[in-house]
Amino acid sequence: QDWEQRQEEDALLIERILLLVRNVLHVPAAPTEEQGVDGDASVHDRVLWALHISGMDDLLKFLASAQGEQQWALHVLEIISLMFRDQGQAAAEHGEDTRELETLRQRELAERRARALQRPSRHSRFGGSYVLQGLKAIGDRDVVFHKGLHNVST
């Protein structure tokens, strides 16, 4: 309904709904009580998802942008600010996790380089000479084999 056609009861209902959404989003996060798995959505994120699924976010965008609905602007602004409340902390935690992973990766690369320097750099291709007893070469001598045993087929 347009604002001219709304009655006082409709305006009170809209205001109560906006206040309810604001109060639900205003509940502080309790990470110790949530006991979620790393990377799991917090209660706040799940509430935001429920608001999105219900279409409430589209309604808030409409109320924020419509000229005839300016009386709700402060309520909508407060709701939007509460929607983005924990996003800065999540980004900071993500940045901290990224730095931690990068530090671990650098440490692992340094250990790999140190292990590579400890090993001899050249590999000997000489597999040795082997005498195959029981197989006779030309004459009465045993066969002498000059390659690795993994290539021998008898």
TrEMBL record:
Residues 2-131 form the Timeless N-terminal domain. One of its GO terms (molecular function) is DNA binding. Pfam families: TIMELESS (PF04821). The keyword Cell cycle applies. GO terms for biological process: DNA repair; DNA replication checkpoint signaling; replication fork arrest. One of its GO terms (cellular component) is replication fork protection complex. It is found in: Nucleus. Its main location: nucleus. InterPro entries: Timeless, Timeless_N. It comes from the Eukaryota. Keywords: Cell cycle, Nucleus. This is TIM protein. It comes from Ciccaba nigrolineata.
